[in-house]
Amino acid sequence: METVRSLRELSCADDYDPDSLPVDRARTLIRQFLQPVTTVERVHIRAALGRILAEAIHSPLDVPGHDNSAMDGWAVRFADLASTGTTKLRRTGESFAGKPFAGSLGAGETVRIFTGAVMPDGADTVVMQERATETRDGVSIEAGAVTKAGQNRRFAGEDLKRGATVFEPGQPVRPPELGMLASLGINEVGVYRRLRVAFFSTGDELRSIGQPLASGEIYDSNRYTLYGMLKRLDCEIVDMGVVPDVPDELERAFATAAASADVVITSGGVSVGEADFVRDLMSKLGEVLFWKIAMKPGRPLAYGRIGNAHFFGLPGNPVSVMVTFYEFVRDALLVLQGRRDVAPMPLFKATLGKAIRKVPGRTEFQRAMLASDGAGRYTVSTTGDQGSGILSSMSRANCFIVLAPETGNLDVGAEVDVQLLDGLI
Ligand code: AMP
Ligand code: MG
Q1: How many angstroms does the Cα of residue 245 sit away from the middle of ligand 1?
Q2: What is the pLDDT of residues 36-86, one digit of tens each?
Q3: Of 5, 262, 404, 410, whose CB is crowded by the most CB atoms within 10 A?
């Protein structure tokens, strides 16, 4: 992979075409400039949900702490069991979860045992209760009730071994990690601080909800989709509202945002419309690259730095905002948050249920519904009109159909790549 040390150096590279940058190339380029946050906060594990561990976690104990039973049944010595006919054993006690059997098991003896109860000394195997009958003179074990020593027994440390590295720094804390931390008796962990993300919308035509609309004006929806997408990533959000297409006001907004946030996101004003001042301002305030990404929707995109803040200038169209966020910004935020395992969203194969029209040249992200055909296969069909202003196409979709630049029209039955949006939207 190429290494570029500065945005300036990049813009001078021979094969760099800012007017038609492939999606993958833009992703790789952005990645090179991302320095994860390093500040650590200690929080209770509940508050760590959705955060990223900043420390390695070593197990202070074995989980489980003792060999114990995986079943309700009878603790036995495997060697005592006859391979044919029933085996009669003498009951010498009980082992309950949390209340172990105090003695030890001798030859010909058995102890009634319950799931999670400590294995008595001397016992190596558990016979499930359905394969044994207790009578007045003992416990009869069916032939073949167990087939090997150690059956139905859980071993100390089989989940987590004392001293082992359970998590590395960069591990996201999700429900299983919360449970594992609790099982180790850990109540506080070090996590990276939250990313502070400031955003505003640009455009003279935009009004905020609660204001009346004059002719030609529209409500600003991008600040709400951005709010939602950033909330899902557990960012600290600074909503700076709508900034009109007035250079002084834009400059002030950029300066304020960059001074207080790790990341600044804007929408609108990065195309080449006459009132788009973002581009000019940026060359003055920071080091920013403007790209026409070879993708649809979401062609214009800006990335760069203003002071210490990263800047993403997203297009104005509501669908383009979401697609560029998911394809570029989301990964970048995950890296900045301290995650070490960030890879582009995986692609799955599905069969087209409806023909697709496409002109070769750009990567397309068509909004679509993936559904089971009832026979174990999945078919995928677009949600209809793919205009980049049609936000309802995102709402109806559960996936993107991702079409490579060279792909043209496709017929029903063609195999296509899909990216699931489940959990993202
Ligand atoms: P622009 O990139 O500023 O040229 O905007 C492209 C299109 O997106 C125009 O139709 C804008 O009115 C629309 N647009 C820009 N920003 C927003 C926003 N925050 N909410 C809804 N639509 C927007
Ligand atoms: Mg605009």
Answers
A1: 12
A2: 999 999 999 999 999 999 999 999 999 999 999 999 999 999 999 998 999
A3: 262
Cα 20 to Cα 278: distance, rounded to the nearest angstrom = 20
Instruction: List b or e across 291-329, with b for residues whose CB sees 16 or more CB atoms inside 10 angstroms.
Output: bbbbbbbbbbbbbbbbeebbbbbbbbbbbbbbbbbbbbb
CA separation for the pair 359, 336 (Å, rounded): 35
pLDDT higher than 60, residue 356: yes
Measured in whole angstroms, the distance separating CA 275 from the mean position of its chain's CA atoms is 38
Query: Per residue in 95-153, pLDDT tens?
Result: 999 999 999 999 999 999 999 999 999 999 999 999 999 999 899 999 999 999 999 99
Place of tokens 């400059």: 251
Output the CA 10–ligand 1 centroid distance in Å: 29
Three-state SS at 96: strand
pLDDT band for position 269 (50/70/90)?
confident
Give the DSSP H or E segment for 254.
Answer: helix 247-260
Q: Which residues line ligand 1 (CB under 6 A)?
A: 201, 203, 205-206, 218, 220-222, 267-269, 271, 273, 315-318
For 230, 324, 330, 370, 385, the CA distances from 294, given in Å and listed in that order, are 25, 12, 19, 25, 20
Q: Which ligand is nearest to the CA of 316?
A: 1
* pLDDT tops 90 at residue 368: yes
Partners of 313 in the β-ladder: 266, 302
